Amino acid sequence: DDRRAEECAQAMADSGADELVVHARTKADGYRPPAYWERIAQVRQVVRIPVVANGEIWTVADALRCREVSGCDALMIGRGMVTDPGLALAIRHGGSVPWVEILPLLLAYWQQISVRVAPRHRSGRLKQWLNYLRKRYPEAQCAFDEVRTLHEPSQIEAWLLQAVSPACLSATAGGGAFSPSRPEAGGHIPAAASRMDALVLTSGPSTDL
Question: Do the beta carbons of residue 82 and residue 72 sit within 8 Å?
């Protein structure tokens, strides 16, 4: 029941909020489509602070339609950015981020997982992201198939380090098949073999995923 949406928005604005993000769905709706962008437009009419639209923005076309219906200039993108990390750039400038530029982010994400998540849950986190990415990148489906049965952190890390090796990146950039060899359990994890590997290992993405 969203009948009090305008009242809640006014209360937040009157309490000093500088900006309001509207998800365009209720708790009962959850993440089920559609997002009711027209309700965002109605909320905008009752407050004098900037309103940010959110919900079911998966593509540039979705973003344009959301802006049209909601009247909002600013958008908040959640799962759409997890699925397509280049979506915000595409909305603003056009174009896309190629898979070869996503691969180093997978390793950087794994580096973050490794210091924040218990070992038994780490592989699941990476597979969860790949599950989203494969909706946008055919190469992510291949990657998901490669790691689907891997569970040991050492196996996952060995696979990732090989995936971002110069040979694999070059093959991927040239349209070649993406298929690092599967490491055995307890297998050797290769050291960073190039300047690119070292850079990836010591730096993280600008946005936590």
Answer: no
What is the DSSP code (8-state) at residue 51?
E
Residue 30: phi, psi to the nearest 5?
60, -135
Q: What is the DSSP letter of 148?
A: T
**Would the CA dihedral through 195, 196, 201, 202 be positive or negative?**
positive
Residue 29, class by beta-carbon neighbours within 10 Å (0-12 exposed, 13-18 middle, 19+ buried)? middle
Beta strand pairing call for 20-22 and 75-76: unpaired
Token code pair at residue 44: 């905008």
d(CA 207, CA 86): 12
Mean pLDDT over 6-30 rounds to 96
Query: To the nearest 10°, the Cα dihedral for 204, 160, 80, 1?
Result: -90
Task: Kindly report the pTM of this predicted structure.
Answer: 0.78
